[in-house]
Each structure stands twice: as structure tokens, then as C-alpha cells.
Amino acid sequence: MKFIFNKKINIDGLRYPKIFSYNEKVYLVGGLLKEIGYYVDNKIVDRTIFNDKIDFNYLKNVGPNQINKYTPHLYEIDNNFNILNSNLFPLDEENRNNIFKSSWVRDIFEKDKKLYITIEHKLNIENKRFEDQNYQYITDDLQTLNEINKYKDNDYFLFKDYKGVLFQCKIEKDKDDKDFFWGIYLFDFLKDNRRYRPKFDKIVDYEKDKGHVIHTIIEFGDEYLMLFTIRHHIKDREFIYKIYSAKTKDFENFYDTKNVEIEKKECDSDWFSYPHLFKLNDKWYAVCNQDDFGKYKDLVLFDVIF
User: Is 60 exceeded by the pLDDT of residue 60?
Assistant: First the structure.
């Protein structure tokens, strides 16, 4: 697989982006920093709400008493990926207003003229740990979400519920750095009430890897292609993501695991994070964050060659 630079999309700080089509319109969704709070004795004493342009200086020196709240934001775009309009993604009042809760759209697909959306609600507990709760919603208007499933596991990232498999990563403490806020998160799938770690022919290393993130799964004939990233440790608490693909027929054994080749041209990022594959007008694309984990820089759009 090869990514070829197409353009930058001029939205700063939209994290974990996804582009999808619905009812003859094209949309972009991602997590946007909407509020920052400071708390003492677990009580918020000051709040800053961003209604328009974000001052990213707030993110430069995050202290132990600073809470960053991310909220899904929805943009309508044209076929050339220009922004037409934007709105907050529909959320219930608790998840919209609780500053300790951020929400992330993990998966979105259309079935029977309705959209199925998996959202992770992440509760920040004293800036020491997170508690994750995953839900699946359904909508036919992108105005109201109706809950259809609440997943029971709180210590897993859930990236996709597909073909009877929950594509998850288990969140654990890092044995090499037990006090590290983010810990590690490695593949841990659930099928027929059986948990297992999928096997890969190369690259994936459950002893060395510090994080796995699943982005897209595509069916090609009797095979499935999975796009994912691995968080690699560089030094101290410095990490980077690298993008990979692998094929499977049973979601247990993966083969032809390889690096995604990236032709970045005028983009100066050293690496890219949170890529999402999508098809528009019979052409495949990928939308990605850059090497800032999506906090400050523009989105990048790539043409995709398989």
C-alpha cells in the first residue's frame, strides 16, 4: 500500500479524523479541543471554552491540574475536500457538558440507509488514569443519536464491531514505566466470548510495542485488509506512530504485514498518526493527522494505491 500526498485540509487540531458519505453528502468528523479546565481538590475552579479559534498555547505546558476536553466536531465538505459548514456532533447532555469527559468517534458505517457510530467516552480521573466506556449509536439524520449497544469492558479501546469480532486493545500499565499516564494498549480481540491476541507474520511484537491502533478494515474478495498503527518507543517518554497494513481471512492470523509507503512531498512531518481509509467517487483516499498526534497541525489527505 502506498500513500501519495494530495493536499492539506486547513483545520488545525482535529484529532482522529474520518471522512464518510451519507445521503449524497460528504462529511469529516474528528475530535476538537473545546474546553480546558483547572481544578483543585477535584473541583473545577476555572474553565476556558473555545467557540472559534483555539489558542494552542494552552497545550504547550499541560500541568497536573489542567483538564483538556475533546468533543467530536462534524464538517460538511465538498468533493474537493473544502469545508462548507460545521457543527458540534450530537451528544447527550452529560457527555457534552462534563469537562472530565472527552468523546471520540471510533467507527462509522452505513447499513440499511442508517449510520452506525461507535463512540468512546473517556473519563479523566484526576489526570492519573482514564476510564473508557464504548457505545454504539444509530442515526438517520446526524442530528440525534440513539443508543443501541453499551459495551461492558471499561479497560479496552474498541475500534470496530465487525463480523462477530470486537477489534479491541487492552489498556494496561507499562511494565517499563508503571507511572506513565497512558500505559500501553495492545491488540486483544473478542470473538464468541473468547479473548485472543491475533498472530502476525512479522513486525507486530507484543513484548516491545507500546500501542496498537486499528483504523480501517476493508473486505477484498475472501480477504480482509487491516490498516493499523504501532506506537514505538524512542527514548524516555517520547513515542512515534508508524503505519502498517496486514491481510487476514479469519481475524486471528494476519499475513503480508508491511509498512505503508508514504510519499509526502511538501508535507514536512516525520511521521503520521490516525490514518483513515475511505472511498469517494470510486477512488481511495486516506486522511491523517501529522507528527503532533493531531494537536496543532493541519490534516493531510493522501491518494491511496493498493
Answer: no
Let me know how long the chain is.
306
**Structural domain range at position 71:** 2-305
We report the CATH number of the domain holding residue 67 as 2.115.10.20
Q: Is the pTM of this model over 0.70?
A: yes
Among 283, 229, 306, 305, which Cα is nearest to 81's?
283
CA dihedral (144, 150, 153, 154) positive or negative: positive
User: Can you tell me the mean pLDDT for 152-179?
Assistant: 93
> Which distant-in-sequence residues (6+ apart) come within 8 Å of 97 by Cβ?
none
The dihedrals phi and psi of 97, each to the nearest 5 degrees, come to -105, -15
Q: Span 259-287, mean pLDDT?
A: 95
The residue type at 105: V
